[in-house]
Amino acid sequence: MRKHLFFTVLLFLVFAGLASAQITEQELKVQKEKLQQQNSSLKKEISELNKDLQRNQNESKTSLLYVQNLTQKISAQTKLVNGLSKEKRFIEDEIYLIQLEINKLSRELGELRKEYRDILVKAYKNKSVENKLLFVLSSTSLTQAYRRIKYLEKYSDYQMGKAEEILAKTKDIEKEKAAREKAKQEKETVLAQQSIVVDELENEKIAKQNVIEEFKKNAGTISNLIAEKQREQKALNTEINRIIEEEIRLARIKAENDKKAWDKAARTNTIASFQEYLNEWPNGDYSNAARNSIKNLEADNKGWQTARSNHTKAAYQTYLKSFPQGQFASTARLEITKFERVEEEERLAREKAEREAAEANKPVEEVVVKEVEKPKPVENPKPDPAPQKTFDVKTNTAELSSEFASNRGRLPWPVSRGQIVVGFGPGKHPVLNIDTNNDGVDIATNKGVNARAVFDGEVSSIISIPGGNRTVLVKHGTYYTLYGNLSFVSVKKGDKIKRGQDIGRIYTDELGNTTLNFQVRNGADKQNPELWLSKN
User: Fold this and answer.
1) First to last CA, the chain
2) Consecutive H or E run containing 355
């Protein structure tokens, strides 16, 4: 009983496995194609890294960029080896499933051939026309004879159908065999590629170890360079803070004087006072508000002159509707009051005349009302005191700052090509166990590359620290970008520069490293440049 149960379970698992194989065959092909695409991308990445490695190795054996690219290549190669192993397994599974299909088709073909052989034997025994004719003539009725004729026709079609089915099944088997051979060739190709990549991977690991040994040989020199760089950066940072703080102080004084001039113009509230402000501060924080105020006052004056020339109640009411807080609003209301007083006197005179005529019991005669003299307009009235207004105006500096800030994570890189080899803030040297601290990021690039502006701005200062290289500080409103370690610069203080414009040549040190120190600051606050630069 137990033995019977065991075989029952075993058969169930076998058939379940076959059903699973049939379900996942298409999925297997999709996964294999996806894996092949990933492996293709890795091969392309390795090819690009090979070009960079060749270029960097020619420049320096202790280049941080070379070490970083070598590490990336080893990582990509390791992923590729694993990917090729997976691809090989997928192909083996595919071959297995194809073989299962071939076996199934072969079994079905055997059954078909057996059936067809039996049909042919039976047909041979009854091949004579006389037998078929006797078979029909021996019918007991016309209906039975008709059915036997139809049976013979269908039997003939059945024979032909079985022959065609055998041919189709044979073609299916040949097709599956061809697919199996193709899969086997793919497997051989993958195995060959895997062998090559594994050998290259071992060579690259040895190369990386050699580079690390080279770094260790030059550890003293590199440590001294890092220490010197830290001293230079500290001195540079002190100078940058001084420059930025001074600019902030001057900007604060400028803003205060600007505000005083604006308050004076706003209190006077005349075209002349606002024009005087603009003459002194054409690009001031309130220059737009001053221009708008001049336009409003001119429109107010024009509206008042129209109302005054017409000198009617309706004209003054139209002025008040357009300029309820205008310069001449109180005068317009006074003129309207005069017109309303005259209208009231005329109404009272008419009512009095009507009452007197009614008392005398006689027809009411037309009452001639003496025309009241039309009020004269006030000559050149002084404008009403202007109400205090609160202007929600952004300064030019704020607009520039907002424009720069809106590009966070989208700024172009300050070099045509390169990689960040030392990140922002405290950290460790990528190879040697040396503490570092960076106010920006160090971007390694190739010898002879120029630094370029990441955004429109103005050259705020060019700093040269004794014993160090040049640094260019560019202002973008309240934001600053800094380009350090330049052997020479191609701009000067006060220059207006555009995004992408060359700033200067990046210095290449005695070990062959060409590295730009790039910083971003909001005032004196240091920012992480990686968060500002585009990911592409």
Assistant:
1) 70
2) helix 329-359
What is the mean pLDDT of the segment spanning 301-326? 90
Beta-bridged to residue 438, according to DSSP, are 425
Of 184, 266, 183, 218, give the one whose Cα is nearest residue 434: 218
Quote the CA–CA distance of 283 and 492 in Å, as a whole number.
23
How many C-beta atoms lie closer than 10 Å to residue 118's C-beta? 11
DSSP state of 486: E
Enter the pTM of the model: 0.52
> Judging by beta carbons within 10 Å of its beta carbon (0-12, 13-18, 19+), is residue 519 exposed, middle or buried?
buried
- CB-based contacts of 424-430 (< 8 A; 24+ apart in sequence): 424/528, 424/529, 424/530, 425/528, 429/222, 429/226, 430/64, 430/67, 430/68
3-state secondary structure of 60: coil
pLDDT at 442 over 70: yes
Distance CA 313, CA 381 (A): 17
* Residue 135 buriedness (CB in 10 A; 0-12 / 13-18 / 19+): middle
Instruction: Express as a percent the part of the chain with pLDDT over 90.
Output: 19
> Quick one: tokens of 362?
């006689």
The 10s digit of each residue's pLDDT in 163-210 is: 676 777 778 778 877 777 777 777 777 777 777 777 777 777 777 777
